[in-house]
Specification:
The chain is mainly β and about 100 residues long. It contains no helices and eight strands. A hairpin with an 8-residue loop joins strand 3 and strand 4.
């Protein structure tokens, strides 16, 4: 997982992976699955970035970027609600999780 803190724009890392900014001013819960019924396994800092590995449906969440049931897998079974990630899209920006 890549987390960066120095900008508010979508970035591409040297490895060719795209990182997306979290909503400004929010610390974002990382869950063990795609929904609020899964346990919180971490919390990402305000101003952080995430690399989305894949995406899939889960619990509907309302956040600064709208209301959605889309969840972003940021690696190793770790998920954040897309409502807190600035992807520039209301839909999928990565492949669907298997």
């Amino acid at each position: 997982m890549t987390i960066e803190n120095d900008s508010s724009q979508i970035q591409t890392t040297d490895a060719g992976l795209t990182t997306y900014p979290l909503a400004p001013g929010y610390r974002v819960n990382v869950r063990s699955g795609p929904g609020t019924n899964y346990s919180i396994v971490d919390m990402l800092p305000a101003g952080g970035y995430v690399t989305i590995r894949c995406q899939g449906p889960g619990t509907t969440v309302s956040g600064p970027y709208g209301t959605t049931n889309l969840w972003d897998c940021i690696g190793n079974g770790r998920f954040v609600s897309d409502a807190y990630v600035k992807t520039g899209s209301d839909g999928y920006v990565a492949g669907r999780c298997a």
